[in-house]
């Protein structure tokens, strides 16, 4: 919910001076002081903001504050400059009204700060975006540049603006800033040459000397030492809290952001340097024949450096400081300058140079920040201009006169606009308009600016008049012309009133400004108004090669010689003030009146007299009076009703119906006198603040009652709810507790029961266990006893039997001994000496007899390995020898039975054993098969008649073999014949010889280690038979064939032996290619025979069934 607040809440003093009661200067100042002491530096007079300079940073400018004041009504929150800025910005954006913010006050009152606060607030609340931010940044950064060149430390303010500034900020229809235009007014240029004690020249000089790099200084021909420059006052060169070097960097940065080119910055600095150099040029008198002194430059070094810096011919400038050319109507006259005139010319040049440079800066900034779009803009102007200046001690001069004139004009526009606004509101609200009596300062303005007999006009007239013109002649003129004016006072006035007024010196005149009387000393008025710069100097400047310099002195152009005098300072100022006033009049004004609480620039001090002085010349009390002229206070019906509805039963708590009627009912009910208020269209107008305060008072009292009521009801409600809650909670707690207690009790009983139960069960179990253990022990005892008893019996019986046996043996031993004894006794006579030996020999004989008879049963087969076991240990050697001898003998006997043929057969078998035993798995199965040789019975079989006859020698072996076809690994049957000198392969059916190979050509035979019948016959390389390649054959009688080949081949070829190669992988030469034959075990089980299969070009794989 939005919190509805009001300015009237928590007020310290009164937030709006309009409500001050009673209204007089003292109460006004008391109120300011009261608020100032409570850190409330802002106070309203209606919509005008009075701002007291706190001289310390207060936490009231934070982003949170900006948010707080954003989009709130003016009187909704406590007074703040943000409220004014917000109001102005919103009516600019939403109601399309151009705004101006007029900030006045004396030097050091916080005008510049206020203008910056307004700008920063607007920057914070207006639109965002890259382009918009750039514009904002440029607008904000124009400040440091202008402050560096236009501000200086003064007695009143360390950063005092020495120029007036008006800045128009332009916005588009959305309220986004587009750009701006800055106008400057009357730079205090006399400061360039001379500063009062304790004050400084413009900041930029000190900033340049402290902050520029050594390089830059060398380029500008400058020294870092302030004391070297006549134009810089030394006693306050360093100011506490001002870091000139850092500021210089800030300024350069700001210039860059604003859009100055590097070369432009350089030119500007060169001109600043030139001003410093200029100050150092000094003159000496030189006597002339005509008796007059003529000035000469004393030390030409500075002059030379300055000329180098600006590209001016030294002699030209030197001459310009010594002579002056006066042109009048085609005539040219040259007069010499004396030393004083030379100094005057020098200072005039410095002042002009600097002030023109400043104006150029403003123009240049304007070029950068001007709005790009050509569409219609909404404008918010911010005017930061010097307030009334009245020096009590120092005499007021031309500058003060001009400044006060400007303030007079501002006051006028203020009165005009405020009254106009007031009047417009009354008409808008349909309230009767009663004319208000107030002081209109138009007469004073007229006194100054009237074109015929105004002071400025007369000053101009005096300046332009031929003949001798002095400040005194000017005063005389004033005395004659303005004598009758009621706001003009002078000693020599015809008006005898002041003849004896000693507070008014003779060389002075006094003006009664709306803010008080000011005494002006006429000295310097004419000179300052003339603002004379000798043409020779401007022409010398124009001759410079420095382009900015030429730009600043266009009147020096000889092609455009203008004999007319340039407009006077007063005239120029009046014109620009006129333009400004016109400009302001088209806008909706917002006022900020700045007040300085003390002269010491410190916090917490409030000097009544000082404030009183300012309040007076700012015309603030007057301001309140104007504001209160008709009705002091006005408020929309809605907010009025909302605020005071509790004062009447009919409107409280809700009023149904139009707010206006509600307010009427309310005021009638409160019996407020009818002349105290008036009903507008949308607002109620209250004539007297007292009425408002009565209402406020009653409201406060009523609020207290209401608060008590609300408190009462709330407390009742709170206690009741609390009680009900407690009650409810108690029931819940009790229920839970009961449940808990019961649960606990039950758990206890349950566990007790369980304990008891377990004890009883344990007791019972232990009883039974004891019983059972007893029974078991009894049973065990019986068994043990029985066992022991049986053991005892058995042992007794054993003992008895043993005794019995011993007894028996004893009997037989005794009997044997007895017999022996008897025999020995009987044969003692026969035995005598050799009886023992004979008995021994006899016994041995018997044993041997028995042994040899046992050997008789042994068979004659050499294969029989049986032999009787050895009968006695002592025969062991004989026994084994006998066995060997017997076996050899048995073999001899066996061999003796062999015929020659059988012997040859066995020899072959033996050879087969040598070749194959333990090398080829097929061998063991062949041992028992006799080698038949001719399996085909080739001689008897008529089928092989022809073949047989073809054979030249005896056929030693004839068998059917398979020749393995290398192409597919399949076998084709062939007859294999072997004779003493060769082997032959012949067709099985026809018996035709296919190949006959002499045995010497046979190189080697390869077989596998496994139980297959494959063999390869490898022929000698290069032999006649080798051309057809090797033979890969298979046969059932492999062992026999190979053995025979080995035997016969060896003898036939007359060599050691044929190589028999036994391995599972060998190479066979088929015609050109070598093919590898590889044997693997456990091939496909297709029968019992091995199968050959061609795997690829180079590999034949023979799978042999596993045994
Ligand atoms: N609102 C403020 N809060 C804190 N200090 C302020 C405020 N306004 C002014 N000052 C102080 O007062 C000094 C003078 O203010 P300035 O705006 O330069 O005065 P003016 O422009 O009126 O001569 C500032 O340098 C600053 O220290
Ligand atoms: Mg200022």
Automatic annotation (TrEMBL):
Q: Please classify the protein's predominant subcellular localization into one broad category.
A: cytoplasm
Q: Which UniProt keywords apply?
A: Actin-binding, ATP-binding, Calmodulin-binding, Isopeptide bond, Motor protein, Myosin, Nucleotide-binding, Phosphoprotein, Repeat, Ubl conjugation
Question: Which species does the entry assign this protein to?
Answer: Oncorhynchus tshawytscha
Q: Which InterPro entries match?
A: IQ_motif_EF-hand-BS (IPR000048), Kinesin_motor_dom_sf (IPR036961), Myosin_head_motor_dom-like (IPR001609), Myosin_TH1 (IPR010926), MYSc_Myo1 (IPR036072), P-loop_NTPase (IPR027417)
Function of the molecule: Motor protein that may participate in process critical to neuronal development and function such as cell migration, neurite outgrowth and vesicular transport.
Identify the PROSITE patterns for this entry: IQ (PS50096), MYOSIN_MOTOR (PS51456), TH1 (PS51757)
State what protein this is by name: Unconventional myosin-Ib
Query: Does ATP-binding show up as a keyword for this record?
Result: yes
């Amino acid at each position: 919910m939005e919190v509805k607040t009001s300015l009237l809440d928590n007020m310290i003093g009164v937030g709006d001076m309009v409500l001050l009661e009673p209204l007089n200067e003292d109460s006004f100042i008391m109120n300011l002081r009261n608020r100032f002491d409570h850190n409330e530096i802002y106070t309203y007079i209606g919509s005008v903001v009075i701002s007291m300079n706190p001289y310390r940073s207060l936490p009231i400018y934070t982003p949170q504050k900006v948010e707080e004041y954003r989009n709130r009504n003016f009187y909704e929150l406590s007074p703040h400059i943000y409220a004014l800025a917000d109001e102005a910005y919103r009516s600019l954006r939403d109601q399309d009204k151009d705004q101006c913010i007029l900030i006045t006050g004396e030097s050091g009152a916080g005008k510049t700060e206020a203008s910056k606060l307004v700008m920063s607030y607007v920057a914070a609340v207006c639109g965002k975006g890259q382009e918009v931010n750039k514009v904002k940044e440029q607008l904000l950064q124009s400040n440091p540049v202008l402050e560096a060149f236009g501000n200086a430390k003064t007695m009143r303010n360390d950063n005092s603006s020495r120029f007036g500034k008006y800045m128009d900020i332009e916005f588009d229809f959305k309220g986004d800033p587009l750009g701006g235009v800055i106008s400057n007014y009357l730079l205090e240029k006399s400061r360039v040459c001379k500063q009062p004690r304790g004050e400084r020249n413009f900041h930029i000089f000190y900033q340049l000397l402290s902050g520029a790099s050594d390089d830059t200084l060398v380029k500008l021909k400058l020294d870092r030492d302030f004391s070297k420059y006549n134009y810089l006052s030394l006693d306050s060169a360093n100011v506490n809290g001002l870091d000139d070097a850092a500021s210089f960097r800030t300024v350069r940065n700001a210039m860059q952001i604003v859009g100055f080119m590097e070369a432009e910055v350089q030119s500007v600095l060169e001109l600043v340097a030139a001003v410093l150099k200029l100050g150092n040029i000094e003159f000496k008198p030189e006597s002339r024949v005509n008796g007059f002194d003529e000035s000469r430059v004393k030390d030409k070094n500075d002059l030379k450096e300055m000329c180098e810096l600006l590209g001016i011919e030294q002699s030209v400038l030197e001459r310009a400081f010594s002579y002056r050319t006066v042109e009048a109507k085609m005539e040219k006259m040259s007069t010499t300058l004396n030393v004083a005139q030379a100094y005057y010319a020098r200072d005039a040049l410095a002042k002009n140079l600097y002030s023109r440079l400043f104006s150029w800066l403003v123009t240049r900034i304007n070029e950068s920040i001007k709005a790009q779009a050509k569409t219609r803009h909404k404008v918010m102007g911010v005017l930061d201009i010097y307030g009334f200046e009245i020096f009590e001690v120092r005499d007021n001069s031309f500058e003060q006169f001009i400044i006060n004139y400007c303030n007079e004009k501002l006051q006028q526009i203020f009165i005009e606009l405020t009254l106009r606004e007031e009047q417009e509101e009354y008409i808008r609200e349909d309230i009767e308009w009663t004319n208000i009596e107030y002081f209109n300062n138009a007469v004073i303005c007229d006194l100054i600016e009237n074109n015929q007999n105004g002071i400025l006009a007369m000053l101009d007239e005096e300046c332009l008049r031929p003949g001798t013109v002095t400040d005194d002649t000017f005063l005389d003129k004033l005395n004659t012309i303005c004598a009758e004016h009621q706001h003009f006072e002078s000693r020599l006035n015809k008006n005898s009133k002041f003849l004896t007024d000693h507070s008014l010196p003779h060389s002075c005149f006094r003006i009664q400004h709306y803010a008080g009387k000011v005494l002006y000393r006429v000295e310097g008025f004419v000179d300052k108004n003339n603002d004379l710069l000798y043409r020779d100097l401007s022409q010398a400047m124009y001759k410079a090669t420095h382009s900015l310099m030429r730009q600043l002195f266009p009147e020096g152009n000889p092609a455009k010689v203008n004999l007319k005098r340039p407009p006077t300072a007063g005239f120029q100022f009046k014109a620009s003030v006129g333009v400004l006033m016109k400009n302001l009049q088209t806008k909706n004004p917002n006022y900020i009146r700045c007040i300085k609480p003390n002269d010491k620039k410190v916090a917490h001090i409030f000097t009544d007299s000082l404030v009183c002085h300012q309040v007076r010349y700012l015309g603030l009390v007057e301001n309140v009076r104007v504001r209160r002229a008709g009705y002091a206070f006005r408020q929309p019906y809605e907010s009025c009703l909302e605020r005071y509805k509790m004062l009447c039963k009919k409107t409280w708590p809700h009023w149904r119906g139009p707010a206006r009627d509600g307010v009427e009912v309310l005021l009638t009910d409160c019996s407020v006198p009818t002349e105290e208020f008036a009903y507008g269209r949308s607002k109620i107008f209250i004539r007297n603040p007292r009425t408002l305060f009565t209402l406020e008072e009653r409201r406060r009292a009523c609020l207290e009652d209401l608060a008590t009521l609300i408190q009462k009801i709330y407390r009742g409600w709170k206690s009741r709810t609390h009680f009900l809650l407690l009650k409810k909670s108690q029931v819940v707690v009790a229920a839970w507790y009961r449940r808990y207690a019961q649960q606990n009790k039950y758990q206890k009983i349950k566990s007790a029961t369980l304990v008891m139960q377990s004890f009883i069960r344990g007791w019972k179990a232990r009883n039974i266990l004891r019983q059972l253990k007893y029974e078991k022990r009894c049973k065990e005892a019986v068994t043990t006893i029985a066992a022991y008893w049986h053991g005892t019996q058995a042992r007794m019986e054993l003992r008895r039997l043993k005794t019995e046996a011993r007894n028996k043996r004893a009997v037989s031993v005794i009997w044997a001994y007895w017999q022996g004894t008897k025999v020995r006794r009987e044969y003692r006579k026969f035995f005598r000496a050799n009886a023992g030996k004979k008995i021994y020999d006899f016994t041995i004989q018997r044993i041997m007899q028995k042994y040899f008879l046992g050997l008789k049963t042994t068979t004659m087969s050499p294969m029989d390995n049986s032999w009787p076991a050895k009968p006695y240990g002592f025969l062991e050697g004989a026994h084994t020898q006998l066995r060997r001898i017997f076996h050899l003998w048995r073999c001899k006997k066996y061999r003796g039975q062999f015929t020659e043929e059988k012997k040859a057969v066995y020899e072959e078998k033996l050879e087969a054993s040598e070749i194959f035993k333990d090398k080829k798995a097929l061998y063991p199965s062949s041992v028992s098969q006799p080698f038949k040789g001719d399996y085909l019975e080739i001689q008897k079989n008529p089928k092989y008649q022809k073949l047989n006859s073809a054979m030249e020698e005896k056929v030693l072996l004839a068998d059917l073999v398979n020749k393995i076809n290398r192409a597919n690994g399949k076998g084709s049957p062939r007859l294999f014949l072997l004779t003493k000198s060769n082997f032959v392969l012949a067709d099985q059916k026809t018996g035709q010889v296919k190949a006959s190979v002499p045995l010497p050509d046979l190189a080697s035979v390869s077989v596998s280690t496994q139980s297959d019948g494959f063999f390869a016959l490898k022929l000698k390389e290069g032999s006649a038979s080798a051309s057809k390649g090797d033979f890969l054959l298979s046969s059932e009688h492999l062992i026999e064939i190979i053995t025979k080949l080995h035997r016969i081949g060896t003898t036939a070829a007359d060599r050691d032996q044929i190589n028999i190669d036994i391995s599972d992988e060998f190479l066979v030469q088929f015609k050109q290619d070598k093919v590898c034959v590889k044997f693997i075990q456990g091939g496909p089980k297709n029968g019992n025979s091995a199968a050959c299969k061609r795997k690829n070009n180079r590999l034949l794989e023979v799978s042999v069934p596993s045994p």
